[in-house]
UniProtKB/TrEMBL annotation:
Interacts with CtaA. This is Protoheme IX farnesyltransferase. Belongs to the UbiA prenyltransferase family. Protoheme IX farnesyltransferase subfamily. Its EC number is 2.5.1.141. One of its GO terms (molecular function) is protoheme IX farnesyltransferase activity. GO terms for biological process: heme O biosynthetic process. It is found in: Cell membrane. GO terms for cellular component: plasma membrane. It is a multi-pass membrane protein. Pathway: Porphyrin-containing compound metabolism; heme O biosynthesis; heme O from protoheme: step 1/1.
Length: 312
């Protein structure tokens, strides 16, 4: 039995505030908050600032609930992976049952309060998102298929759609495009991480694409998804949420994203190992910049339009 496994078995439930905060995956939550906020703001219906603020808060809590449920279920493999071994549950600072209880209560509170604060369409989408991440992705896809990230990426793509529903009470082609931006971005983003963290996934028995099909195929798939993402991202410029500001940013960001993926595909594995996967790490970091900058451009475009400047 490993020390980490022993820690889980002897967890006293005396974790500090920071440990319970870490259960909510705050870095992931920040992405949820930002994309959901953009979804609210770019929608064609104005929302009272207080309603918008509390709605985003409850969407964030729903994202945190998903993180806690994920850490509860995955604590066995988290002990094996270097990247996750110091998380509160595998490190023994929080008992698995506490993580489960926190996740379930936050799920109930976030969905109920979002429904009361905005509307039940948004609340229903949030409930489905939590279920999809905790059950479909974490409990099923992650340990079963190398397409885990592809299909499971839907969970991270729902927040802007939920934000749009907060404002409009429904779903439209624009909110579907916002969903698609995150959904198609997710595989290149996580597969770039998997290229230089492959040993973790191998040791934990997680069937990431790098484990089941090798790094060469993973590099190819990164390029394919980046190339498929580009026309969707650029095409959003020609909808009601687009315009010249977003189009300019989308052309630059997607050209760089696709070109980087092409260079990764053509990269020799011996070279990658020799420089400790520097290019893969750089592409992973840029993928974060890509998504943040894309949604910032949508936000800037919406501000431009709402101040009466016009879309083009």
């Amino acid at each position: 039995m490993t020390d980490a496994t022993q820690n889980i078995g002897t967890a006293t439930g005396e974790g500090q505030f920071g440990d319970y905060w870490a259960l909510l995956k705050p870095r992931v939550m920040s992405l949820v908050v930002f994309t959901a906020a953009v979804g609210v703001f770019v929608a064609p219906v104005s929302v009272h600032p207080f309603i918008a603020m509390v709605s985003i808060l409850f969407i964030a809590l729903g994202g945190g609930a998903s993180g806690a449920l994920n850490m509860w279920y995955d604590h066995d493999i988290d002990t094996i992976m270097k990247r996750t071994a110091n998380r509160p549950v595998p490190a023994g600072r929080v008992a698995p049952g506490e993580a489960l209880t926190l996740g379930l209560w936050l799920s109930f509170i976030s969905v109920t309060m979002l429904g009361l604060a905005s509307n039940w369409v948004a609340a229903g989408l949030l409930a489905f998102t939590i279920f999809f991440y905790a059950v479909v992705y974490t409990m099923w896809l992650k340990r079963w298929t190398p397409q885990n990230i592809v299909i499971g990426g839907a969970a991270g793509a729902f927040p802007p759609m939920i934000g749009w529903a907060v404002a409009t009470g429904g779903v439209s082609i624009e909110s579907v495009l916002l969903f698609c931006l995150v959904f198609m971005w997710t595989p290149p983003h996580f597969w770039a991480l998997a290229l230089f963290m492959n040993n973790d996934y191998t040791n934990a028995g997680v069937p990431m694409l790098t484990v089941t099909h090798g790094k060469r195929e993973t590099r190819k798939q990164i390029f394919i998804y980046a190339a498929l993402l580009a026309p969707l991202a650029v095409g959003a410029a020609f909808t009601s949420i687009g315009g010249w500001i977003y189009l300019t940013a989308a052309l630059y960001l997607n050209a760089k994203f696709v070109w980087g993926a092409w260079k990764l595909w053509k990269r020799d594995e011996a070279d990658a190992e020799a420089d400790i996967y520097a290019a893969e790490k750089a592409y992973f970091r840029f993928s974060l910049v890509y998504l943040f900058a894309s949604f910032c451009a949508l936000l800037a475009q919406s501000v431009w339009v709402k101040f009466g400047m016009g879309a083009w």
